[in-house]
């Protein structure tokens, strides 16, 4: 089959080369860029049943107003001395512009000391050197519109007062700097890869022409692959925008190997004084199957990534497989086509024997492969020791596997001179950074139950205490402690709620007609139900005499209310219940911290 392919390529060599060159040019100039149509936002690749995806869905469902802003960016207003009136006026004008119609589209709610003065303690640092303006965004931080907003903000930040600095940071600012760093890394990787491959080919072939053939083949394969993947992303296939860095390394790696195999075999056949056509057919006929098998094995391996749950990995395998397939096709067509055009001259300045124009054989050198002959001899004579030594060397890196640590520190991955990093460091120095970018835990009852009942609140109290005990957790804000302190949730503690149930002694309402109303009866039944639920949530409380007496008194009151004949006894029993409820509250205060 590959001999037939070689014959076809030789026959239409100029057409083959022209086709690939035109295709590469079209892809380079007309295909959509991966950065424009693919995804940088990794959250878009998360499985729908992942914790973060489910939490985001719950927030959007039950807190639509709070989750209206999809992402945010921070404007850090900083003066190393102290923020003066000129600085405040400048920050105010910037805040007004962000809220005006002239601001770019995509901006949501603005949180600043000017729009929310009550937040001044959280938006201005204690040393009065740093101010934070929180800008909500209506799209993902990785969206192009978010980048456009940051560009507009930079254009707006001009003529600042002396000593004032303004930094753009937060989620969107970091993503913009991360994207720029990745793009720079891709460019650097591409340049370094091309240089290394070029040097390697020059060392191997010692011929500029022979070195250019693989570079041309690989370059065309790279351009075509990027174009095809760009069209795939435009059609709706999830492709990570930074796949470029993998494509460069993979295509240049395997493409160089494929071209080396074909060129080396072609050179060997020329040594046998075959014509260039016969040499190409023989070379591709023998090495084509080997190269194809290598590519197919790699494609199958990469396709195995499609079973991953994380969609970025899931889609990366097939995307890279497409690149490998294109590289294989270019290697078995472009390389033979160029070889058939140049013939033995492709290895210039190596000497050739040219008895006839169609016979171009490269003169073999006796000492040229002395080193590799020695390597082959040693390996075949001592296969087991050589294999053990090589395996041992390959295992050395695995000794450090236990030191591998996962990191969620995006800041450490960015250049330290990036604007978002400098701004974030200012926040860290002058604010409690945990309050600026907290982690959010979403609780939901799958059965649609009421999360405000006593049992759930008791579990929430335990969960809050557990979270506070974790290393690195400074404070936990919840319905039980809205500002992160226990004092802020005092009204929700069981002891204080029991005190709230105590009737007002000074009411002096002893009129039996009022006491036996349906509303009064329902109120006491509610109190009894509450105390019963309290006992279920805090079993130790049922051992308290005051608790049992409270339940007993409530039963008596309800029975009495249901019997009009004993209405006059209610006032006395109410006074008794008041004392018992106070004792129950005291017991909760003493016992809850230790036993709840």
Automatic annotation (TrEMBL):
It is found in: Cell membrane. PANTHER family: MEMBRANE PROTEIN MJ1562-RELATED, MEMBRANE PROTEIN YDGH-RELATED. Belongs to the resistance-nodulation-cell division (RND) (TC 2.A.6) family. MmpL subfamily. It comes from the Bacteria. GO terms for molecular function: transmembrane transporter activity. This is Membrane protein. The keyword RNA-binding does not apply. It comes from Dehalococcoides mccartyi. The chain crosses the membrane at residues 12-31, 178-205, 212-233, 245-263, 284-308, 320-348, 369-396. One of its GO terms (cellular component) is plasma membrane. Keywords: Cell membrane, Membrane, Transmembrane, Transmembrane helix. It is a multi-pass membrane protein. SUPFAM superfamilies: Multidrug efflux transporter AcrB transmembrane domain. Signal peptide: none annotated.
């Amino acid at each position: 089959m590959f001999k037939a392919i070689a014959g076809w390529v030789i026959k239409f060599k100029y057409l083959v080369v022209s086709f690939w060159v035109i295709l590469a040019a079209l892809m380079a100039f007309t295909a959509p860029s991966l950065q424009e149509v693919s995804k940088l936002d990794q959250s878009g690749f998360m499985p729908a049943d992942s914790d973060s995806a489910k939490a985001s869905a719950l927030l959007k469902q039950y807190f639509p107003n709070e989750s209206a802003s999809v992402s945010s960016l921070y404007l850090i207003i900083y003066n190393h001395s102290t923020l003066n009136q000129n600085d405040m006026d400048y920050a105010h004008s910037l805040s007004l512009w962000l809220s005006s119609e002239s601001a770019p589209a995509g901006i949501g709610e603005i949180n600043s000391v000017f729009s929310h003065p009550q937040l001044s303690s959280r938006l201005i640092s204690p040393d009065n050197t740093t101010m934070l303006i929180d800008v909500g965004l209506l799209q993902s931080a990785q969206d192009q519109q978010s980048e456009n907003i940051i560009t507009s903000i930079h254009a707006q930040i001009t003529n600042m007062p002396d000593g004032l600095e303004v930094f753009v940071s937060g989620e969107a600012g970091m993503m913009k700097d991360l994207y720029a760093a990745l793009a720079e890394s891709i460019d650097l990787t591409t340049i370094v890869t091309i240089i290394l491959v070029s040097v390697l080919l020059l060392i191997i072939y010692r011929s500029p022409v022979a070195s250019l053939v693989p570079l041309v083949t690989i370059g065309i394969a790279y351009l075509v692959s990027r174009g095809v993947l760009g069209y795939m992303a435009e059609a709706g296939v999830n492709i990570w925008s930074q796949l470029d860095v993998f494509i460069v390394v993979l295509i240049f790696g395997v493409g160089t190997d494929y071209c080396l195999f074909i060129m080396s075999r072609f050179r060997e056949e020329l040594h046998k004084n075959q014509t260039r056509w016969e040499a190409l057919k023989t070379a591709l006929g023998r090495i084509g199957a080997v190269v194809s098998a290598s590519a197919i094995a790699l494609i199958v391996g990469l396709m195995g990534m499609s079973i991953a749950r994380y969609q970025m990995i899931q889609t990366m395998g097939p995307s890279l497989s497409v690149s490998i397939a294109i590289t294989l096709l270019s290697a078995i067509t472009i390389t033979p086509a160029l070889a058939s055009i140049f013939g033995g001259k492709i290895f210039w300045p190596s000497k050739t024997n040219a008895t006839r124009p169609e016979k171009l054989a490269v003169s073999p050198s006796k000492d040229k492969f002395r080193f590799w002959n020695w390597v082959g001899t040693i390996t075949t004579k001592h296969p087991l020791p050589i294999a053990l030594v090589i395996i041992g060397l390959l295992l050395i890196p695995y000794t450090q596997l236990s030191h591998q640590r996962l990191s969620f520190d995006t800041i450490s991955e960015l250049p330290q001179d990036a604007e978002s990093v400098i701004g974030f460091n200012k926040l860290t120095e002058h604010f409690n950074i945990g309050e600026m970018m907290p982690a959010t835990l979403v609780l939901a009852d799958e059965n649609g139950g009421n999360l405000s009942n006593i049992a759930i609140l008791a579990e929430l109290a335990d969960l809050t205490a557990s979270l506070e005990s974790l290393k690195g957790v400074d404070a936990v804000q919840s319905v039980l402690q809205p500002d992160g302190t226990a004092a802020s949730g005092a009204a929700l503690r069981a002891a204080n709620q029991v005190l709230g149930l105590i009737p007002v002694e000074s009411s002096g309402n002893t009129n039996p007609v009022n006491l036996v109303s349906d509303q009064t009866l329902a109120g006491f039944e509610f109190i009894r139900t509450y105390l019963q639920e309290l006992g279920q949530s805090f079993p130790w409380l049922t051992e308290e005499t005051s608790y049992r007496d409270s339940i007993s008194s409530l039963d008596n009151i309800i029975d009495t209310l249901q019997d009009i004949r004993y209405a006059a006894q209610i006032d006395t029993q109410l006074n008794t219940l008041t004392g018992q409820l106070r004792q129950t509250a005291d017991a909760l205060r003493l016992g809850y911290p230790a036993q709840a």
